[in-house]
Amino acid sequence: MAFDLVIRNGMLIDGRRTPRYRTDIGICEGKVVALGRIAAGVGVREIDADGLMVAPGVVDLHTHYDSQVFWDPWCTISGWHGVTSVVVGNCGFGFAPVRPEQRLRAMQTMARNEAVPIECMAEGMPWDWESYPEFLDSVERTPKGVNLLAYVGLNPLLVWVMGSVEAAKSRPMTPSERVEIERLLGEAIAAGACGWSAQLLGRGSIQRDYDGTPMITDLMAQEDLIFLAEALGRLGTGVIQMIGDPGSADRLAAASGRPVLYNVLAPTTDQHGAPAQSYQKVIAWLAETNARGNRIIAHAVTCSINYEFTLEDWNLFDSSPLWRDLTLGSLDERIDKMRDPVRRAALHEEWESGRAPLAGGGNESQKERLGVSLPDLLLAYVTVDDPELRRWEGHTVAEIATALSVHPIDAFLDVSLASDLRAGWQSAPRTIDPQVMRDISTAPYSVPGLSDGGAHTKFLTTGSYPTEFLATWVRDHAVMGLEEAHWRLSAYSAQVAGLHDRGTIEIGKPADIVVYDLEGLALLPTERAFDWPGGAWRRIQRATGWRWTIVNGEVTFEDGACTGATPGRLLRHGRS
After folding, report:
1. What InterPro entries does the record tag this protein with (predicted)?
2. 3-state DSSP assignment of residue 298
3. How many CB atoms lie within 10 A of CB 159?
C-alpha cells in the first residue's frame, strides 16, 4: 500500500491515555490509515521521527482569531505551538450577524475589549457576509492552516435583533425579539456553530467596549440569558462558553441541559505572591455541580501571564473608572489627561483608599489576585535618547519612585509621558507553585489553556501555552505524565467543544499530528512583529522543539518555518 505521508519510528502518544509505544504511522487522503511497522519506500513523503514524540495536534478552545484568520491562515501565535484546531467566537464576541451599517461598530467592540487593532480588522476582513451562515461560508472559502470551529457570540445576535448596541445595553428583549433571536440561534447552529458564548462580568467588568462602557452581555437581563440557555436546550445540541461567576455557570447549565465551558480556573496569589487557595474552592464546586448533573468544565490557566505594554495601547486598568477615563481618547487627549493635576490627585486618593487597579484585573484591596500591582511593574525600555530616562530601564516603578522621592503613580506616568506613552513596561516574573499547577491541571473537570490567541495582541503571548505546559510543567515539574497531558490538550479539549473526530491518533481519524523533541521544547523571547495588515505590530513568541506540525495529513510547519500549506477546514457541527 502506498501512503501520502509516513511518520517513522516515533514514540506515539495517541491522546487516549494509552501508554506510549514506538510505531510508524501511515497517512492517506488526510487520514490515519495504518499504525505499526510500515515497509520502506511506500510513502510519497517520509518523516524520520526517531527520538521524537508523536502526538495529536493541540485543540485551542479559547481564541479570538475571528478576524485574523482572514489574513493569517495559520492563526499564529497558536499555529507555532502545536495547535491544529482553534475555536473562535469566545466571550460573546464576533462579527455575525452584522448589517453593513453596523460593521464599524462591530469592529470597535473588539478594538478595546480584546485589543485587536481596528485598522487591521478594517483592511483584513472581506466582509462578504451579513448573516451567521454567510460568515461561516466565508470562513470556509478562506484558506486555513488550522481547523476552525465557531461559537455564535451573543453580542452581535442581540444587536441584530434589538436594532443597536445602545438598545441591547439598556433594556431586556421584547417577546417578539425573543422569537427572532431563537430563530437566529437555530439558524446559526444549523449552519455549524458549536454553541453560544457570553462575557458575564457585570457592570464592573475589566473588559470594556471601545467607549469604556461594559459589553452588551455584561449588562443583559438575567431572564434573557436564561431564555437563550433554554433555547439552546430546545435545540438539543451545542456548548455554552462563558466567563463570569460560578453561579451563572450553574444557572446556564441547569436551564440548558447543555455542557458549559467555564472561564477560568486560575492559580491566584496573595498580595505577597504566595499561593492563595481560591482555586481549591473552584475545583470543589466543579465536583459538586457535576455530581448534581450540571456538565461544567473549567478552562484552567496553565501558563504564565506576563504583561508587556505601553500606555499608548494599555486598557487592562479598566476596572478603575479613573484609569479608564485616563486611557480613553486620542493620544494627545490621553497625554493631557495624564498631566492633569486634578486627575492625578484623584488617582492618589484612589491609591490611598486601597482601590488602585491591578494590571490584568481587580484592585489592591483583594486578598487573592491574578493581577499585578503597579509598583511591581518593570521599565523594560524607553524610546527617547535621554540618559536620565534610560538609567531607569530594568527598575520597577517602586524603585524609580523611591529614587525620585515621588509617588509610584507619578513615577509611572512621568516616565511614560517622557516617552510619549511609548515606554515599555513589564509585569515582574511571577512564580507559580508547581503543586498549585498540579492541582489545577489535573482536576477532573478542567482542560488546559488559556490561549486568548488573536486578542490583547500588544500585551500578551499566552497563545504559547502548549509549549510552556509541556516543557515547563510536564517535562520539568512532572505535574502529570505525557499521556495525560496530551489527552487534556487534545482529546478532552475536543470533547468539551463538541469536536467529534479530532484529538486522538487512530485509524480512520483525520491526521492532525505534532512531532516534537521533548528535550528541545522551549519558548523563545517575546518580540514585536510588524506583520499585520497596514504594517501594524503585535507581540509574538515562537518556540523551539516543534519539528513538524501536520493538519489533515499535510505539513504546515517544519522546524518552526511555515510551509505555506493551508489544509485546515471549517468544522461545522464539530466535524470535517
Report:
1. Amidohydro_3, Metal-dep_hydrolase_composite, Metal_Hydrolase, Metallo-dep_Hydrolases_sf
2. strand
3. 23
- The beta strand positions in 422-473, using DSSP E, are 424-426, 446-449
Average pLDDT rounded to a whole number, residues 25-29 = 98
Give the pLDDT of residue 120: 96
* Residues 355/361/362/367 CA torsion (nearest 10 deg): -120
Integer Rg of the chain from CA: 24
Same domain as 240, residue 358: no
Q: Which of 529, 534, 313 is nearest to 420 (CA)?
A: 313
Virtual torsion, Cα 173, 174, 177, 179, nearest 10 deg: 110
436 and 397 both lie in a single domain:
no
| Domain identity same for 149 and 282 | yes
User: The cell 499530528 sits on which residue?
Assistant: 513
Buried b (16+ CB within 10 A) or exposed e, 78-107: bbbbbbbbbbbbbbbbbbbbbeeebbebbb
- Regarding whether 437 and 411 lie in a shared domain, the answer is no
Kindly state whether residues 331 and 476 are assigned to the same domain. Answer: no
Q: Residue 445 domain-assigned?
A: yes
Residues 416 and 435 in one domain: no
Nearest to 78 by CA among 90, 89, 64, 96: 64
Q: Is residue 376 domain-shared with residue 448, that is, in the same domain? A: no
Q: What is the pLDDT of residues 462-488, one digit of tens each?
A: 999 999 999 999 999 999 999 999 999
| Residue 502 structural domain | 58-306+430-564
pLDDT of residue 268: 78
Give the helix/strand (H/E) hosting 408: helix 408-418
* Residue 134 placed within a domain: yes
**Cα–Cα dist 552/439, whole Å:** 34
CB 259 within 8 A of CB 297: yes
Work out whether strand 546-551 and strand 554-558 pair parallel, antiparallel, or are unpaired: antiparallel
Q: What CATH number should be reported for the domain holding residue 193? A: 3.20.20.140
Question: Residue 530: what pLDDT?
Answer: 95
Q: What is the 3-state secondary structure (H, E, C) of 47-115?
A: EECCCCEEEECEEECCECCCCHHHCCCCCCCHHHHCEEEEEECHHHCCCCCCCHHHHHHHHHHHHHHCC
Angle subtended at Cα 34 by Cα 29 and Cα 40, rounded to the nearest 5 degrees: 95
Helix or strand holding residue 158 (H, E):
helix 154-162
Distance CA 554, CA 8 (A): 16
Length of the chain, please?
Answer: 576
Structural domain total, the chain: 2
Q: What's the grid cell of residue 503?
A: 484529538
Final residue belonging to a domain, choices 426, 452, 487: 426
| pTM of the full structure | 0.96
Tell whether 389 is covered by a domain: yes
| 296 and 349 part of one domain | no
